[in-house]
Amino acid sequence: MSEEIKNETQTNIDESQAQANPTDESLNTEGQMKESVGNQRIPYERFKAKVDEANALKEKLAEIEREQEEAKRKELEETEQYKELYEQAIKEKEQARQEALAIRKQALLSQAGYDNEQSKLLVKLVEGDDEESIAESIKQIQSTVPIKDDYADPSAFNGAKAKPKTVDAEELGRDAVSRVLHKIRL
């Protein structure tokens, strides 16, 4: 019986050593697998399918959240908890007002001459709730943050300057030899 325990213990030790010290072949195949996975490119169709799948899941999640909110609202109506319904409606109204104000600020920034990227960033700097305070805030922003302009003077004959043509080393050598060749007598 003690021999069986010794054999079993010896077998367990051999297995644990084999697991702790993997062979060079197993290390090599793991490295090759990592390299092959790292170098693979994902086909556009598969990427597009995954993105579409993620977007569909996001839409489904938003739909489920809307259904849960609607179910909660109906439950509150049934239990006649009108105070909570009123507070929830006020929150939704305030969120909609804030979104509309942000959209209005971004539109006014676009009208002032800022492009979409700039207006998205600068909308946080615009202060005020009414038209006058927003306009004043935009004027202050215009004085400190320049408008990105990608245009040139549209006057006639104001084209870009002609760039000199490129010359390679061989052509430079030919020109130098032709200037000196007539001075040398062979």
Task: Give an overview in words.
With 186 residues, the chain is mainly alpha-helical. Among the domains are: 47-80; 95-147. Helix content is 72%, strand content 0%. It has seven helices and no strands. The protein has helices spanning 2-20, 24-39, 44-78, 82-111, 116-122, 131-144, 169-181. Helix 4 (82-111) crosses helix 5. The longest helix is centred in the N-terminal third of the chain and has 35 residues, at 44-78. The chain is elongated and about 115 Å long.
Task: Describe the structure in brief.
This protein has 186 residues and is mostly helical. Helix content is 72%, strand content 0%.
Keywords, separated by commas or semicolons:
single chain; 186 residues; mainly alpha; 72% helix
- Average pLDDT level: 77
Shape: elongated
Q: Strand fraction band?
A: under 5%
Radius of gyration, taken over Cα atoms and rounded to an integer in Å: 37 Å
Helix-and-strand structural type: mainly alpha
DSSP strand count: 0
Separation of termini?
Answer: 109 Å
Q: Which oligomeric state applies?
A: single chain
The biggest sheet, with number of strands, parallel, antiparallel or mixed sense and barrel status, is: none
* Range of helix content: over 70%
SSE order: HHHHHHH
Low-confidence segments: 14-37
How many helix segments?
7
